[in-house]
């Protein structure tokens, strides 16, 4: 699963019983940073996606043509069962976007802190 909201792209990947959070800076000036986490972090992420029906975001492409500046987001998730969800938006976002990204950010705060401390 990958999501972007700020200057960091966060990618969560399961590797057997372990998982990685990869922080990828947008500007490309800094190298990606892999941070090992317990696999339960991805289970918690999946619960967030289910609780907010993020599957309904599949194919969402929001854009507000009247906005001259603002925010953008990109979300991708691919599950072991082959289900794939992709959504993006520029000043127009899917339902519960803020809640979902806030909760995902809470799961990855330790990895982000480690990235900035390196």
The biggest beta sheet reads: 7 strands, mixed
Question: Could you give the count of β-strands?
Answer: 7
% residues in beta strands: 35-45%
Task: Pick out the low-confidence regions.
Answer: none
Cα-atom radius of gyration: 14 Å
Shape verdict: globular
The SS-based structural class is alpha+beta
Q: Give the H and E element order.
A: EEEEHEEEH
Number of helices: 2
Which strand order does the major sheet show? 4-3-2-1-6-7-5
| Oligomeric state of the chains present here | single chain
**Ends: how far apart?**
24 Å
- Give the proportion of residues in helices: 25-40%
Query: How much is the average pLDDT?
Result: 83
Description:
The chain is an alpha+beta fold and 118 residues long. Helix content is 28%, strand content 36%. The protein is built from two helices and seven strands. A seven-stranded mixed beta sheet has the order 4-3-2-1-6-7-5. The model has no long low-confidence stretch (mean pLDDT 83).
Name a few traits of the molecule:
2 helices, 28% helix, single chain, 118 residues, alpha+beta, 7-stranded mixed β-sheet
Task: Characterize this entry briefly.
This protein is an alpha+beta fold.
What's the helix and strand layout?
Layout: E1 2-4, E2 8-15, E3 18-25, E4 33-38, H1 40-51, E5 60-63, E6 72-78, E7 84-90, H2 97-117
Parallel strand pairs: 5-7
Antiparallel strand pairs: 1-2, 1-6, 2-3, 3-4, 6-7
């Amino acid at each position: 699963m990958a999501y972007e909201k700020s200057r960091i792209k966060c990618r969560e990947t399961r590797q057997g019983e372990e998982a990685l959070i990869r922080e990828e800076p947008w500007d490309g000036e800094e190298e990606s940073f892999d941070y090992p986490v317990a696999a339960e972090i991805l289970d918690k992420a999946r619960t967030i996606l289910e609780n907010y029906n993020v599957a309904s975001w599949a194919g969402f492409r929001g854009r507000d043509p009247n906005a001259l500046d603002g925010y953008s987001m990109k979300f991708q998730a691919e599950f072991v069962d082959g289900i794939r969800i992709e959504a993006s938006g520029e000043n127009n976002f899917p339902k519960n976007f803020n809640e979902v990204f806030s909760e995902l950010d809470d799961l990855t705060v330790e990895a982000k802190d480690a990235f900035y401390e390196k």
